[in-house]
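Each field is set out as follows.
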Amino acid sequence: MIDCMVINKADGDNVAKAETARACYANALHLFPATPDGWTPPVLTISSLTGKGIAEVWRIVLEHRTRLEANGYLATRRKQQALEWMRELISDGLTQLFQATPAVAARLPLLEDAVRNNKLTPAAAARSLLMTLVEKGF
């Protein structure tokens, strides 16, 4: 979900409000299960105006990175992200190919209208469009 939450504007009249927000978010985060890497996301307040808390944020970033590298979770996470990126690129490419196919492009607006007007289910429309693509040799 998150590795760290930072609440800015903790200066002047906002200090008490920022601290209240920090406490609320910290309590809410305890409702979620522990992360797979065992890290508990800290919630901090900072002031970019005064600089208060910025060094602590950087310290936490470095501490988190060191921990992820030490327990191997960073490498595992990067491998998973690479696979997700590859799958997203494939999906995007297939969508572009799909929409660029003239027979599909011609039928798509008609089937979208049919789905919008409850004359065809989304599954039936998708199946029909996919069959159009298959029939065209893709």
About this structure: Strands lie at 5-7, 43-45. The mean pLDDT is 94. Helices lie at 15-29, 54-71, 73-100, 102-116, 122-135. The first strand starts at residue 5 and ends at 7.
